[in-house]
Amino acid sequence: MIPRTKRVNRGSDNPLRDALYPAFNRTGSGDAMRTSQMPVRVCNIGIAAFFISVAVGVGLAAAIGHPAPAAVCAAIGLYLLFALQVADQWEKVALLRLGRYVGLRGPGLFHLIPVVDTLSRYVDQRVRVVNVTAESTLTRDTVPVNVDAIVFWVVWNAEKSILEVMDFVDAIQLSAQTALRESIGRHELAQMITERESMGRELQRILDEKTNPWGITVQSVEIRDVRIPQALEDAMSRQAQAERERQARIILGQAETEISEKFAQAALVYQNNPVALHLRAMNMLYEAIKEKGSMVIVPSSAVETMGMGGMLATASLGGAKPQ
């Protein structure tokens, strides 16, 4: 046997409504209030109409000396208090007459018959955001991750959102969480980190197909954060560092290979042109001693090969001359 939910009387921010129409201030299961219906809101226009009617009735009763006008005007004011309703520009509400759907009301001022008519939950048709979290979910390569995402959605058909689903806010959140977990299981960790936009588009398409019959459109899904365990994060950091060192060694080896090839080509040129070799040697010597205070020891064989004659022991840019 299913236990009945205990009724809870909640306070209200409108004492006048509580005193005049207490039935609309109760929520819970059973006959008093269904979950898809909301208490009738008392708007400022209804309150103004009530006080005006009461004031007119009191004035007429004082003028004619009979209380009947006061009672009639008070009844009219009480009717207008709950009959006049206002929905904001971004809101719509379904009107139910004796439990049957009559139509949508709002935005603006509309009229209902108290007791006979009831209102559904007011539907906000602005863009709304839901935060979705999937914790300790395994990826395709069996890596546990925690993923945070946000879903942007909007109600484009208030009638369907009221009549087709009991609580579309909870339905959106639970559907988004389920779709996010399924999408994580279909992707590897590297794809989730580098392809967040494509993953968000996939989630948006899946959710939109599910929520479109409810009159709701999922505009976009954004993956905010992908967190992995700290031990795995350290291992991935060491792996990335080792990969960078390997790339650096490969680049250094390629540079050495290119340099050796250029030296081999230069040797072939110098082999057939001794004058070019002498000029290159003299240029190297000049580059070595052009800095002030520098000293270079040159073998005599190198000097004789360049045709300079004699033995050059030391040279310096500071004015040292060969003896």
Describe what this molecule looks like in 3D.
The structure is a single chain. This protein is an alpha+beta fold. It has three domains: 14-122, no CATH class; 128-228, 2-Layer Sandwich (Tetrahydropterin Synthase, Chain A), CATH 3.30.479.30; 273-323, no CATH class. Helices cover 48% and strands 23% of the residues. It is built from ten helices and 14 strands. Strands 3, 5, 6, 8 and 9 form a five-stranded antiparallel β-sheet that branches. Strand 10 and strand 11 form a beta hairpin. The longest helix is centred in the last third of the chain and has 42 residues, at 230-271. The protein is elongated. 18% of the residues are buried.
How much β-strand is present in the residues? Answer: 15-25%
Output mean pLDDT: 78
Say how many strands there are.
Answer: 14
Number of helices: 10
Kindly give the count of domains. 3
Summary?
This protein is α+β, with helices and mostly antiparallel strands and 323 residues long. It contains 10 helices and 14 strands.
